[in-house]
Amino acid sequence: MTWLELADGVHARRYEHLDQTLGLVVGAERCLVIDTGGDEVHGAAFAAEVREITALPWTVVLTHAHFDHHFGTAAFLPCPVWAHERCRDALVREGESDRAEWVRRLAGKPEAERLAAARLVLPDHLLTDSVQLDLGGRTVELVHPGVAHTDHDVAVHVPDAGVLFAGDLVEQGAPPSIGPDAHPAHWPSALDRLLALRPATIVPGHGDPVGPDFVAAQRDELSRS
Q1: What is the β-pairing status of strands 139-143 and 125-127?
Q2: Low-confidence residues in the chain, pLDDT < 50
Q3: CB–CB of 128/151 below 8 Å?
Q4: pTM assigned to the model
Q5: pLDDT at 68
Q6: Are 131 and 118 in contact, with CB atoms under 8 Å apart?
């Protein structure tokens, strides 16, 4: 586990488990936490790690509804929790079945017991296409670039830093995860919308930060699949 400082007040936190990457953007008045981990123990550890950097009040954004990105949210409450409107729908519809499936997959590991005990928290602030959040002296944009990894992916653009947190729209160290809820035919156009924001650094949901050339190559690979 380690913090990566990508720009002033813009950080990524790397974890060995699932090669996951969570994010933090700090403004003058508040901070934005990007995804919360796969259970409340992970979430509480991440919250404590955020407090090593800033004591400012936080807002949470969930990039999508897969278990490893949101089951740590209870550790951050009370706070606003942003997500795409269809992310909330997916959590209501599939959150418990997704939990059960991953408890089964992780059987015998400590993560299974922790996931089974985690509280499912629904987002209370919803977006459809995009929304801007004022962190105090810094504005970030939450962007839904279209259906891709899911039908409700949200990326976090930090324009003054040239950083984009892409969730699982981008994956480094492994091919993109094309699950049953993915839309691979539309994924390349979603990546084009992100690249049009001209970020210098893109933070994947899993793996190390990459540059736009990496994302363009992944887009081309998806186009051929």
Answers
A1: unpaired
A2: none
A3: no
A4: 0.97
A5: 97
A6: no
